[in-house]
Design brief:
By secondary structure, this protein is mainly alpha-helical. The chain is 75% helix and 1% strand.
């Protein structure tokens, strides 16, 4: 006979989280910007071990804990595969001149004063069209970051603008997976969900755009003109820059809009970048290959190297060298390690019932509209921090709160909107979350560096709670609808 599993206390549930927070603080103090190189991964594994000890004390079997870990890691595998392909895409787009072309024309067209504003708008439009913040940040996001660095704007500020726009578009796009998942969990339809999200999302993005515009008009760009000229000259010297290179991102956006899944879409963009490198950058192909021989052989070597390892275009300026360096798939390994460690922690916490124990205690504070929405937001953020995955941060709270919202007479679009306001947009702010780990690696900017400037992502959950607290356009069932719903669900 199996021993009966014991329900964890709230104190037991918080022990691993408290230990994790303490270790992460020590890592920041002692390792600084190098925390993602291993320190945070070990912290997550130690916290997972502590959670495992508690699970054993609660009489959980190792086989069940291990199954939960494997399931947790399995849920992150699509993200890991996409992350690897994003590394290879960045490499071929650098070798082909696509990213340098985006930087080159961007520097010529965008005025420094409105750059941050334009970065939000451009990222938002592409993400809205593709339904993917990840693809947006991995493509035009990298180019926008290069432009911002050239203009002398801090990387954290530029990354914050890119992420704000990308997550706005992702959140509002009918092609986005999370935008489809949230209404499915709450029990409403997609376009009702999107229309209802506008009540909180439009004010959030409007305030964010205003902040970035004010920053742009007050930022000091006096010393950037010489750097801009230098970057333009270096790009002209080392790349064949022409408008035909824009065919690559245009075709990638097209296939994503046509609902081709993310993995084959990004692979298509990677291979297309390699093809354009062979066509337009023959001198660079020879330089990167580092060998002599026929062009077919050199092309194969250079394109393969761009996909799996570091390539760096050497110029006379160290700043430009940094802009023109990519690390391929190999550069993503620390991030994958971090994601795996986070999934182990989340799996152990879930198997022992520690996450659910904390969430249940949060629900008790939901007494009115504002506190119910606030509880949902807090729960979604909690799962982003502990389970390290935005899908879990939508699915689990969605299941937990659906009956509570229904019992209180709220239509399901209030829950679906709150799940996105609390779960989708905050995932990128957590360094060990799959989203935060990926975007910080892709942009080369630590999550804690860009976090203070992701104004849209920070404002959204607060806006959601504020709108609910003042009861602005809160949709409720009529008595007749409520009676019909109770009959359908078999409620008294």
């Amino acid at each position: 006979m199996n021993k009966q599993v014991t329900r964890p206390s709230l104190f037991q549930a918080f022990i691993p989280i408290g230990c994790l927070i303490g270790l992460l603080v020590l890592n920041v103090i002692y390792f600084g910007d190098a925390t993602l190189s291993g320190a945070n991964q070990i912290a997550l594994l130690i916290a997972a071990a502590i959670a495992g000890i508690i699970a054993f004390r609660l009489k959980h079997k190792w086989s069940d804990i291990q199954s939960s870990i494997v399931k947790s890691i399995g849920s992150a595998m699509p993200s890991i595969l996409i992350l690897l392909l994003i590394g290879s895409l960045a490499g071929t787009w650098m070798l082909s001149g696509v990213v340098p072309a985006l930087i080159y024309y961007g520097l010529k067209v965008i005025h420094p004063v409105i750059f941050l504003f334009a970065a939000v708008v451009a990222s938002g439009i592409v993400s809205l069209a593709t339904g993917s913040s990840w693809s947006t940040i991995a493509t035009i996001g990298i180019a926008l970051l290069g432009i911002g660095q050239t203009l002398g704007i801090s990387t954290g500020l530029v990354a914050g603008a890119i992420i704000s726009g990308a997550y706005f578009g992702d959140k509002m796009s009918p092609l986005s997976d999370t935008t489809n998942l949230a209404p499915a969990m709450a029990g409403t339809d997609l376009f009702t969900h999107i229309r209802y999200m506008m009540i909180t999302t439009v004010p959030s993005i409007s305030i964010s755009l205003l902040i970035f515009l004010v920053i742009g008009f007050t930022y000091n760009f006096d010393d950037s003109s010489a750097q801009v000229t230098n970057v333009l000259n270096q790009i002209e010297q080392h790349f064949n820059i022409n408008p035909f290179l824009f065919i690559v991102p245009a075709l990638l956006i097209y296939v994503i809009i046509k609902k081709v899944p993310p993995l084959p879409s990004i692979l298509f963009g990677t291979l297309l970048g390699g093809l354009f490198a062979i066509i337009f950058q023959p001198e660079l192909i020879r330089t990167i290959a580092g060998l002599s021989g026929n062009y077919a052989k050199l092309s194969y070597i250079a394109v393969m190297k761009s996909m799996f390892t570091t390539i760096s275009i050497k110029t006379s300026d160290p700043v430009v060298n940094n802009l023109l360096t990519t690390n391929g798939m190999a550069g993503m390994m620390d991030t994958i390690w971090l994601i795996l460690s986070a999934m182990v922690f989340g799996g152990v916490m879930d198997s022992a019932g520690l996450l659910m124990r904390i969430s249940e205690s949060i629900i008790k504070f939901a007494r009115n509209t504002g506190s119910l929405v606030a509880s949902t937001v807090i729960t979604s953020i909690f799962f982003n921090v502990t389970a390290s995955d935005q899908y879990i941060a939508i699915v689990v709270p969605g299941r937990m709160y659906s009956k509570t919202y229904r019992d209180k007479g709220f239509k399901p679009e209030l829950l679906s909107r709150t799940l996105e306001d609390g779960g989708t947009v905050t995932s990128v702010l957590v360094p060990w979350n799959t989203c935060g780990a990926t975007q910080s690696r892709v942009l080369g900017v630590p999550a804690f560096t860009y976090l203070p400037f992701c104004f849209f992502n920070i404002i959204s959950p607060f806006m959601s709670v504020f709108i609910a607290s003042i009861n602005y356009k809160i949709r409720r069932y009529s008595p007749e609808e409520k009676l019909e719903l109770n009959i359908e669900n078999g409620d008294d």
